[in-house]
Write a structure and sequence with these properties.
Blueprint lengths: L1 H17 L50 E3 L6 H12 L13 H13 L8 E2 H8 L7 H4 L18 E6 L4 E6 L2 E9 L10 E4 L2 E7 L6 E9 L2 E5 L1 H6 L9 E3 L2 H10 L5 E5 L1
Parallel strand pairs: 3-11, 9-10
Antiparallel strand pairs: 1-2, 3-4, 4-5, 5-10, 6-11, 7-8, 8-9
Length: 276
């Protein structure tokens, strides 16, 4: 009889602690906490704040100051870009990092906070940031600049004279230069490892405003051919997907307005320099 009472008491204690059975993994690949997460827990006086790497809410200390806010709506800069890149890694944000903390980013932060039992403010405080750091990896350069906008490096010396399309594979930028002066800069992407964009010094030999590829049957608006079938041209796929895609060897430009203006200025015979 005593043994039965002990077993029943133990079972009741487990139900009190757990509340219910553990759920399957969520969209981030983490195991969900028992629901409701706080059922049956007895709070000890002034519990210390703690940060976890799972979906259980942190328990702030009674009377503790709220965590400091790092970034909120209206903020801009590289740190905001990293926040956005990390939110993209765990599917809370789908647009490319912009470096501006707008409404879309605020809603993504709210969703992340709510899923983990944190105060849903939409502002990234130190607790929210530490939780996000524990679930993501350091974003690379092209995660931070998925949709372009990265700064250009110093131009290749071969670009410093004449009329030149100066294309840098390292920073993924195209400069339109005349006599050493940069008139405009735009983001570009290149071919994949199987269809690489050739490096070297070339010249524009043919322009085709509404070109369609005879090999891949894809549109190539504002095409400026410089090496065989490789050209500088506008890419709607680049505009939509950023660096998640690649060309078949051409130099893709994301900004249609910018390349339309460039197409009007470039002449056959103008130099093209493609370098790392």
């Amino acid at each position: 009889m005593r043994r039965s009472i002990a077993v029943l008491a133990g079972t009741a204690a487990l139900v009190t602690v757990c509340g219910c059975s553990v759920q399957g993994p969520d969209a981030d690949g983490e195991a969900r906490s028992p629901v409701p997460s706080g059922v049956g827990r007895t709070a000890s006086p002034s519990p210390p704040a703690r940060t976890t790497t799972d979906d259980r809410p942190s328990a702030p200390a009674t009377g503790a100051r709220p965590p400091a806010v790092l970034w909120s709506r209206g903020d801009q800069g590289r740190d905001v870009r990293e926040l956005q890149a990390r939110l993209r890694q765990i599917a809370w944000l789908f647009e490319g990092p912009t470096g501006t903390y707008g409404g879309v980013t605020e809603e993504a932060v709210k969703g992340f906070q709510g899923k983990r039992g944190l105060p849903v403010t939409g502002r990234t405080d130190t607790v929210t940031w530490q939780r996000l750091l524990g679930m993501t990896h350091e974003p690379g350069e092209w995660e931070l600049y998925l949709m372009g906008g990265q700064p250009a490096a110093a131009p290749d010396p071969r670009c410093l004279s004449g009329r030149v399309l100066c294309i840098d594979k390292t920073t993924r930028t195209l400069r339109w230069m005349v006599d050493g002066r940069t008139l405009t800069t735009m983001s570009v992407r290149f071919g994949s490892q199987y269809t690489p964009t050739r490096e070297g010094v070339f010249h524009v030999y043919w322009k085709s405003r509404d070109h369609v590829s005879t090999l891949y049957h894809s549109p190539m608006p504002y095409a400026m051919f410089f090496s065989g079938g490789q050209a500088v041209h506008y890419s709607s796929d680049f505009a939509a997907r950023g660096y998640a895609g690649a060309s078949h060897g051409c130099v893709n430009v994301r900004d249609e307005t910018a390349i339309a203006s460039l197409f009007a200025q470039v002449r056959n015979g103008d130099k093209v320099v493609v370098s790392w």
